[in-house]
Amino acid sequence: MLSYRLLTVVLLTASFYPCEAQEYHLTRDLAGSNLYNVSEIDSNNGGNVHFISQSDADQKKMTFIDSAGRAIISVDNTTDGKGDTQFGRDTVYLISNDPIDFGSLVVFDAVHIPFGCSVWPGLFTQGTIWPEQGEIDIIENVNLESRNQYALHTAASSGTLPELDINTGCVVRDASNKSFGKGFADSGGGVFAMLWDASGISLWFFERSNIPSNIDTKPDPSSWPTPSAFYPAETCDPRTAFGPQFLTLYINICGQFAGAPALWPTSGCASEAAPTCADLVQDPANYNNAYWSINYLRVFESSSSSSSSSPSGTAPSNSASAGVNAPSATNTGTASGSSSGSSGSGAGQNSAALNVSPNLIYSILLFSCLTVLFWV
Ligand SMILES: *[C@@H]1O[C@H](CO)[C@@H](O)[C@H](O)[C@H]1NC(C)=O
Ligand SMILES: *[C@@H]1O[C@H](CO)[C@@H](O)[C@H](O)[C@H]1NC(C)=O
Ligand SMILES: *[C@@H]1O[C@H](CO)[C@@H](O)[C@H](O)[C@H]1NC(C)=O
């Protein structure tokens, strides 16, 4: 009798809380040539780069679709900057025309992420107003690192003291040493996924040999293993801490992360490559691995979330770009495309860039969401 009652309770509970997976459907496919349906932004985050227009990048073969159908996005590795201590390499800053909204699942499949001493790639999402509308870092690390780092940047607790150590706060390191850098490339790359829903924000990395089936067409996060990083809604409300998010992908060189004086000496680059990050920039041979090779970048929405109003918003106001975004803040200190990431003046020169480029000013970042689950 007792067990019968229990069974009834279980059945009732099951009927109130159906366990079947949410169905996700593709809403945006930024693969192949679609990946270039984006606009550039003029901000170098204190790095030794110069973001050129998409058409220039196409012309210079810095962005193209290769024979395997993959989107290649790279850094100039032919120009010799010898003698120019402020030299900045050409590359692109890509930002989506439209934002994604709460309820979205982003899936990114690549075989190569830019790496090497002084190299700092990023795949992230950002709101129009930063940091009030938040930023979600899906792929980001620097130099010779082999493990990816996930992070959230929000203004939810704007009373928090500036976070000086970029390896703390909301940053979570993937456990896999194939999630970034040479290890990622040598093992055929893999797939990253980011789910932004009522439970919070979840980020996964799957090695090539371990990718869930149908992830590219009918992804089912409920069947996936524990995420690499999970920021629960209880400590960071995913509906209020984040506005509509614009997908952003770029490559930087040196700057506040790759070239950070606090990081460089222990990066392996100081002994292997050069005493300072800036020493490497002039030599194009250092950038042969500074490229993305992308199978696809897809956005899915669940059936329930898709019934809500569609995402709206304008591209980050900081985006000074041609194309859809109105030209705005020009980056006075960096008009030449160069600035010294290792010098103290770099940050001052880039004050316009700071507004614009959420991703980098780690030294003035306000981290909220202090409760993070580390699975490492
Ligand atoms: C690409 O850009 C065009 C023109 O701005 C726009 O109409 C179209 O919706 C965009 N497509 C995607 C997938 O963003
Ligand atoms: C990567 O991790 C695996 C298993 O965790 C370990 O056996 C291997 O030595 C690591 N490789 C490097 C280059 O650290
Ligand atoms: C630039 O890098 C690409 C990608 O690794 C490589 O194929 C090319 O040969 C490099 N160019 C030069 C001049 O080394």
From TrEMBL:
The keyword Signal applies. Residues 308-343 are annotated as: Disordered. Keywords: Signal. Pfam families: GH16_XgeA. It comes from Dendrothele bispora (strain CBS 962.96). GO terms for biological process: glucan catabolic process. This is GH16 domain-containing protein. InterPro entries: ConA-like_dom_sf, Glycosyl_Hydrlase_16.
